[in-house]
Amino acid sequence: MTSPISSAAPGTTMSWDSLISDLRFGLEDYRDPARGLRARSDFQRDFDRLVFSSPFRRLQNKTQVFPLPGSIFVHNRLTHSIEVATVGRSLDTVVLMWLYPRHASAPWASKLESIGEIVAAACLAHDLGNPPFGHSGEKAISTFFSEGAGADLRSLLTPRQWADLTSFDGNANAFRLLTHPFRGRRPGGFAMTYSTLAAIVKYPYESSLAPEGKNKFGFFDSECDSFIRVATELGMLRRPAPDGAISYARHPLVYLVEAADDICYEVMDIEDAHKLGIIPTASVMRHFLSFFPSDRRARMETRMATVDDPNEKISYLRSCVIGALVTACADAFAANEDAILAGRFDGSLLHHIPQLEKSAYEACNDLSWERIYRSSDVVDIELAGNRIITFLMERLVDAVRNPGLNYSRLLLSQVPQQYDVDAPDLYGKIQAVVDHVSGMTDVYALDLFRKLNGMSLKINN
Does the model's pTM come out above 0.85? Predict the structure, then answer.
């Protein structure tokens, strides 16, 4: 999905030379004299820095779609992010086959070889800002302010601050997590490269421009200046917007990150549903085979006839579908490079793939909504997550607003020091609460909910 704001003016375009930059956020004045001798590029260092970070490790205990596994393993946010990074690298392999010959004579052509490293790092980080309990966690935070106890705060905040809270989005939260200097941390947050940061932001406009009814925007008001700094350095195109609002055309590599994410969650959610017995084997096989022409389907069916295990058959088909979508999306990117660089490209790459693959993908999406996202297991986790997050938000927001109360002092003493619950303004205090809640794992949020309700108190006789 692209910004609702009109495209950039004709005659303006972005350049790969400026779009690919290893300048580090918060360390702009620092240059390592040995950087040219390092075995790892700065973009590889981005990737490694994310892998070894606490927020990334916490993704292993955050719901993707289905409840965290019992006897049958399904995807969590961590395994999803690793798979998205893998698919992102595959996309780059095909894209580079198209782009490099086109630009081989340009003095900056060697920069194109870094695209895969940038995309892989951005893919790895794309879900870092997501709260516990899947996408229902995002909704629980936003509706706490729009429908719940937080609604009375509206008159105390600016319109942009209010829009941030009522449209809370994990993507904007990821940009904050990576760039904000939390208390006790260094300036620049993770000190990621500018290109990796830009490649994460799927919706490069402020919350006031989010489409009605959809929590989709790229950065909070508190990080607006940070995003402008990144976008300006990379030569991203500024778009016209009402009332001086901030809106940019996407960094081109966002399209590859988005495609990798869309491919993985659609295909892998169906495979998980099959493992859980929610969707029968025949239905999954029919949907996955529909991505291919009849002659290819016949060869695939012959190969599957030699395998008895249904899960093995679906695993084989899943790999074939991902391969087909990777090729189709990479081809779409290459075919539309000029429009993407000019900020005139509409929709996602999956909207521009051949009709066979597009129709099959849409059929899988319909299947997911019909059989997965409305299944009892998924709705149960949404209901429980909503209650838990709403309760925690109520208690913590009340505590930061009334820090002198005894209960507030006790509760706030348990908040990690990095979150500034003593911020000088109300918006900062509330952001500290949202930072804390969104950073929780499913298990931690449930445990805290139980403790605050006196449900896990241990008393020795």
Answer: yes
